[in-house]
């Protein structure tokens, strides 16, 4: 396995490569789940646009459709109606293989607990991304530099069980940013953290959203951290409400 953290230059000629950024746009997105009597409209004609460098929080009660929104925006689930575009490219018009490559190269995911691989050191969690995306025309980050940026360089040789919850999240965020994604999708990043660590992790997300000019969508139940976001949208019964200013 080649562990060099090669940084390639951005190219605008390859349609699969890192071209012009315009962020995420969902237009008229409807998603139905289940069947028969248990058919649920998880997303109901949802419109949402998130610009590069914008940090949007999605709040709402359990079952409102927040996870469904992340799944559709992340090209994991195809909507029944509507379009999802990332940097102007309609992901519904791609083949399954193209969509998988687009997800791997242009979308970063951050989960509740970091989702790190237990056997790998912090540094190798990031190097693995370089390895898995080898050959792709990407402006990859250099792993050590990125760890420095998220304040984890001094723990590069640790394994996940030797880290705190907040540190694991920092590494998860760094890993998600390795491919300089256009879109960062974040699911309940503070679920396992105390209040102080929650603020640290979400302010890191806010900073990286600006620094990396990534369009970030974070689902959260944690109203304490909303002040770090640029915009808050609320989901109720699959519908997205008008946007409100951060608390
Ligand atoms: N596989 C499925 N089959 C049928 N219905 C589903 C399925 N997955 C989710 N749902 C339903 O779709 C709706 C939206 O679910 P979703 O998980 O998106 O909500 P959520 O806002 O993320 O909830 P939570 O905050 O509890 O995670 C809910 O009514 C849920 O019961």
TrEMBL record:
CDD domains, A to Z: ABC_MJ0796_LolCDE_FtsE
Protein biosynthesis found in the keyword field: no
Keyword Disulfide bond tagged: no
Sorted UniProt keywords: ATP-binding, Nucleotide-binding, Transport
Domain spans labelled ABC transporter: 24-247
Gene Ontology molecular function terms on file: ATP binding
Region described as Disordered: 1-24
Compositionally biased region (Low complexity): 1-15
SMART domains, alphabetized: AAA
Record PANTHER family: ABC TRANSPORTER RELATED, IMPORT ATP-BINDING PROTEIN
Name of the protein: ABC transporter ATP-binding protein
Lineage, highest ranks first: Bacteria, Bacillati, Actinomycetota, Actinomycetes, Streptosporangiales
């Amino acid at each position: 396995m080649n562990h060099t953290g090669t940084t390639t230059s951005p190219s605008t000629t390859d349609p699969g490569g890192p071209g012009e950024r315009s962020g995420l746009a969902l237009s008229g997105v409807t998603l139905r789940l289940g069947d028969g009597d248990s058919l649920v409209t998880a997303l109901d004609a949802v419109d949402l646009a998130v610009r590069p460098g914008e940090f949007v929080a999605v709040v709402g009660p359990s079952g409102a459709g927040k996870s469904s929104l992340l799944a559709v925006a992340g090209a994991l689930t195809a909507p029944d109606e509507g379009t999802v575009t990332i940097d102007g490219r309609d992901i519904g018009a791609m083949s399954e293989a193209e969509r998988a490559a687009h997800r791997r190269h242009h979308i970063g995911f951050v989960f509740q607990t970091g989702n790190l691989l237990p056997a790998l050191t912090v540094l190798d969690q990031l190097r693995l991304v370089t390895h898995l995306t080898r050959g792709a025309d990407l402006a990859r980050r250099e792993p050590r530099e990125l760890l420095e940026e998220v304040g984890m360089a001094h723990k590069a040789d640790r394994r996940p069980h030797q880290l705190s919850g907040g540190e694991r999240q920092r590494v998860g965020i760094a890993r998600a940013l390795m491919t300089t994604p256009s879109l960062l999708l974040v699911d309940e990043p503070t679920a396992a953290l105390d209040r102080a660590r929650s603020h640290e992790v979400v302010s890191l997300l806010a900073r990286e959203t600006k620094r990396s000019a990534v369009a970030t969508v974070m689902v959260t139940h944690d109203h304490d951290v909303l002040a770090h976001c640029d915009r808050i949208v609320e989901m109720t019964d699959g519908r997205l409400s008008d946007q409100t200013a951060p608390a």
